[in-house]
Write a structure and sequence with these properties.
With about 140 residues, the protein is an all-alpha fold. The chain has one domain. It contains 6 helices and no strands. α1 runs antiparallel to α2. The N and C termini lie close together (about 10 Å).
Length: about 140
Amino acid sequence: MNRYTNISWWYWALTVPMLGAGLYGYSEGFYAAMVLTAVQIAHFGLRENSVTAFPVQVRIAYLGLLLLATWWPFYWVYWLQFVGTSAMVLFDYCLLARMVSLMPWNRSEPFTLELFMRTFFSAPVPGNVLQGLPAK
């Protein structure tokens, strides 16, 4: 699937300049990113018919990080999200999705160093990293 026809890619591509604007000093950019992420949660929750679906979990975690970063000691999280979201848009590598895939409810094998290495150092895959399948 061409990434430019994937709605998920477009959501993330729109989030990057919002975070960039926030980091440049326009705090409204952070709030716009939060609203867009909430829209994504609703969109994918309705599409998957579940708030526990993996794409929804990733977006809930992303929104949680955006909210955490509003507290000044965690402002640096915005930078992490900017870099991570840019990597997602440019290279299809989503660090957050890989982290969420390691949660106990998302894996069927025990947590091991081998699983950790395979999760974080495998090549990017289009779509859902949990199943390794293209997104719907």
